[in-house]
Amino acid sequence: MANIAEQTLASIATEHHETVPVLERYHLDFCCKGKRTLSEACTEKGLSVEEVIKNLKISTHANSFESTSFAEMNAGQLIRHILLHHHFYTRQSMPAIEERLNKVATKHGSRFPYMKEVLKYFSHLKNEMYLHMQKEEVILFPRIKQVEAFAKHGQNGFDKNYIDGPVTIMENEHDEAGTVMEQIRLLTNDYTAPEDACTTFKVVLSELKRFEEGLHQHVHLENNLLFPMAKKLILSAV
Length: 238
Description:
Layout: H1 9-15, H2 20-25, H3 38-45, H4 49-62, H5 75-108, H6 114-152, H7 161-187, H8 199-235
Helix pairs in contact: 1-8, 5-6, 5-8, 6-7, 7-8
């Protein structure tokens, strides 16, 4: 983000879509008035460009990928990471993505009807993800932590299905979520914006791409690390 003060609002939002909430917080219009530089826009609104830049940089750093040794984590640590880095992000990002998709579908749906389909797919996924995460947080994750605690003290008393049943449901729902995002990716030609697309159009496609990437990592941590670990734990606690 070099020379960010002289970058246009549109380029900042397009190249670093994680900065959009910061731009919106300061009411810096990156869409209709996106050709203005950050410096010009801040001067017009009487804002401190240094303060805005500081918060823009914080937003990019906060969303950068952390180099974490997941293989060294126990089940409780993995669950904590998933809750903080994936469930929180998913809950925070979905309403904003849906809102921008609705704007694009409403304003540009006649020219790009596939965006109406994208909106339908994502709205459905959003509702399903809320339910999915709730089931993990209320049912599966507490069970995994309970089994881990019992196994640590050499105690037993669990049926194998205590973990296997919910895990099977979660894995099936992961597959369904992946299928929905794949359909969205195909509809948008791998999240490619039309040449004359507005900034909001470009931003929401970037957000969808990041959402899918995050979903892939989320599912990887659960399907390939947490769930197998939980199944091993219950074998030592039955």
